[in-house]
Design goal:
It contains five helices and four strands. The protein is mainly alpha-helical. A two-stranded parallel sheet has the order 1-2. It has a two-stranded parallel ribbon with strand order 3-4. Strand 3, helix 3 and strand 4 form a beta-alpha-beta unit. Helix 3 packs across helix 5.
Length: about 170
């Protein structure tokens, strides 16, 4: 399962160029799906549009969205769930691709290391510092933060999407 973080009324981080995190996440998720399916891997996306996974009349859209993501993941019963986000921190020294896994999971830690290495190769190695943390999801950190500072044109963001998709393409793990 690939979970493109945010969606609908929740745009996530908004870049200085106006790019919405929910759109960047979905673009990366779609490209990753294409790469994995080309390798014969069955992939399910938690969302396939810019919409959130909630009813417009829901009293707490965020809670309903999260519950529906969890339901989709549990129904699919995947070998792996990847949740894509663009994190941002006020400290400029905190940057790079970030892979998060369950505390105490040897398999999760090993997979996080396998994902981290090609991310560094597929993206800018100077920006993608190895930062492996422990939590309950895999998370790709904000690469756009560095590029936004440089006011790069739109094609740079497209290159990022390609790099992230290629970086976590399954052939890099086999």
């Amino acid at each position: 399962v690939i979970d493109a973080g945010h969606g609908g009324d929740d745009p996530g981080k908004i870049g200085i160029n106006g790019a919405l995190e929910k759109d960047v996440n979905l673009c990366i998720a779609e490209k990753l799906k294409k790469y994995l399916e080309a390798d014969g891997i069955r992939v399910v996306l938690t969302r396939e549009t810019g919409d959130g996974l909630y009813d417009e009349t829901a009293s707490n859209k965020k809670v309903q969205d999260m519950k529906r993501r969890i339901e989709k993941i549990e129904e699919t019963d995947p070998l792996l769930t990847v949740s894509i986000h663009q994190n941002s921190y006020p400290e400029e020294y905190v940057h790079g691709a970030q892979v998060i896994y369950y505390t105490g999971s040897n398999e999760g830690e090993r997979l996080a290391q396998l994902i981290q290495a090609p991310l560094r190769k597929g993206l800018d190695a100077e920006v993608c510092k190895i930062t492996i943390h422990t939590r309950d999801i895999f998370d790709i950190e904000d690469y756009l933060k560095e590029k936004e500072k440089e006011s790069q044109p739109r094609e740079d963001y497209d290159n990022f999407h390609d790099g992230a998709g290629i970086g976590i393409n399954s052939e890099n793990f086999m």
